[in-house]
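Why does this matter for the project? Reviewers at the last site visit asked to see concrete outputs rather than summary tables. In response, this paragraph embeds two records directly. Each consists of the residue sequence and, immediately after it, the corresponding structure tokens. Nothing has been edited or filtered.
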Amino acid sequence: MTHPSPALPATRPARRRPSVAWSVLALLMVLPVAGVSMFRAIPVEWPLIVVQLLSFTPWMVVPALVALVLALAGRRLWVVITTAALLAAQLFWLFPLDAGKEQGLPAGTASVPVEVMSLNSEYGEADAASIVRLVRENGIQLLTLQEHTQGFEDRLQSEGLDQLLPNRLSEPSDDASGGAVYSVFPLEAVGLLPDTPFRMDVTRVLITNAGAGTTATLNLTNVHALPPVDERIGQWRSDLDKVARQASRPGSQLLVGDYNATYDHSEFRALLDTAIAGQDGRKLVDVGTAFGGRFSPTWPMEGPPLPGIVIDHMVTSPRISSSDYSVHQIPGSDHAAIMARLVIPAG
């Protein structure tokens, strides 16, 4: 009689050891992310190279995500935690909780809607027909232009812009400092921000809603800040400070155009933190950021294939509500047009 042999003890599968190679690759990938994150997190007046580097902060989410995947493959806990923390920081900056929330108006408060568009025309080389088509198709009622030239104005007129937006305040120039405002509403020149190389005109717009019988006054600033290049970085900071001072004035403020700054620049975020007269301490609203437009670049639309960044902004007082924010490429310009529907409190 045979007896069954005793069962052999089950063998455990060998544990896979953490991979040094994957972890090293993860750390190499996340190293530039850590450097940019340090500059982004500390709001000081960084030197020129850092200011320019910060413009591309949103794209750091890509290497941060790849680094986390590599860290998970490497299975070293401290590397996983490090890469996850840096990815979390990028996501927080991409969708910031402090982007600026509109205050809104109490129920029943009278208001007037207006469709707004802005474009840097790149020395007046933007395609006039495309601009007029966008104005017509989107019912644009208020258009601001930077780098406005006389030749560009003539082409816009020949394409019929004056028929759509008959009111115009224009200061054309061939050296990038020109600007213009076109509108269906009456325009009144108020002044000019002082000591800025590019014109930044302030215009009072009397907006009416004939159907509802309501009117609203909008203080419009056509923004064109100097770019932060070489020794002119000080002027760039000064330009943004001038815009912030204008924003702090009473009334409904719209400050729209080419800021040559992104939300990742502390100088731009300081502008949004401007104390607004009569607004209960609420901050300004960057409409594009508030609508999740951090990956809807406005520059460069032509030239070398650089990662796009958002340097054109529509900034409003907190009592102005907004919707339908969008970005549109225009042939001939290195900037995209931005547009949105704003609702201005009556008065």
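We now turn to the second protein, recorded in exactly the same manner.
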Amino acid sequence: MKKVVDLCNQISNITYENLTKIIRLEQTGSATGARKLDDSDQNDIDSWMGGGTCFSMTWHMYQALTDMGFKPRLVMGHKRKERNIHCALILPDPDPSTPSLRLSAQDDTALHAPLSSLVSSLSSNSYLLDPGYLIFDPLQMPLPQPFGTGEAFFPLSPNCVRLVRPTLESMELWTGGAGAPMKLRFEYPVEGVAVEEFKHHWNESFYREMMTYPVLNRLDREKGIQYYYQKGNLVVRSSTGSQMKRIEPADRVQTLSDIFKLSPSIIEQALQILEKKH
């Protein structure tokens, strides 16, 4: 697990941002071209233009973990009626010496699923990796009842996380903080998707509504502070609560550059592209 934790720490300073995604789409004119231009596709984090969305971060981790000899699974996240709008990784059994649970034929019939597709999900040592939601800690997945408790709680800062496993086939991500109620964020089918399907959903993400305005998200793990910017509003979230303030257009480029550690030229270029489209 040390290799996995080191990788998570390596990318924990990366900013979630759609600005480079907007620029690449404008440069290439197609989602496929923009995706292939993504620096994460080259698996070189040092050449990143500053960050990326969940697809960039997840794909980078998938390649890195595969190169290390692990067998991560790409999983898609669903939100209410919106399908495949998020992605993450499941890392089954990083330690091969850890025994996995096994189902009997009777259990398999009761769960109405092929035994072969369920065995890897029934491990006491599988982890969710969700860098696209700024979760840079490997979260040990709970086992569904009756095999386990069905949920696990992680007191991260500033957002605590709860993983809920209602069935063997699915898992839910809930987050909350500073006295706020926990909210359901995504539901993941744990079986995962093939690389080609993942890239198909990545292509589709270039044409979603969130590509029509800037979205930036950064976590300062050392201070336990999250910075989130969308549609002109900056939210600063800490363990004591959240504050929101409006950033005036004249101050946007420099303020966003300072907070999100991005080049002013990238911010300005992306904002100009968005302004032309409006």
